[in-house]
Please model this.
Amino acid sequence: NEVDATFVALYGTEQSGEEVVLGLDLGSSFGWCITTNGLVTMSGWYDTTRRGEGGGMHLLRFKKSLCEIIDEFSPTAVFYETVPFQKGRGREIILRQTGILELELTSRELPYGAVHVSTLKKFATGNGRASKEQMRNALFARDDFWMPPNGVPS
Model:
């Protein structure tokens, strides 16, 4: 399957047993998805920002949320979306989150990789320049799509 191929390409070894992959879409509100043996089993999002708050509080909340997801689902690998040409405050947040993410995953000895946004779009829709609406439609069309009733993880 594709997860096996990704593992072999990145790490030169196949995984044995159940494959639980965590996918992340980083940002001030970050989305996440768990797939088990290639099927989506859980997804949600967190908003790590609070109005009027400065400093690194949103980064502390990001790390806490990330650790909760990892502790609950015990992924065998983590993949996150990378957007290399984004500018402004959004890029700064994503770069900081990426640093925290890579430190946490390295300390847990979890394999991880970055996937370019156009690669994700092409996989989901066949078009590397798909719009957010096209991506949403592709997600909802999946037989294995699942989202909590309120769209927020418990």
Remarks:
- Residues 113 and 146 are 24 Å apart (CA to CA).
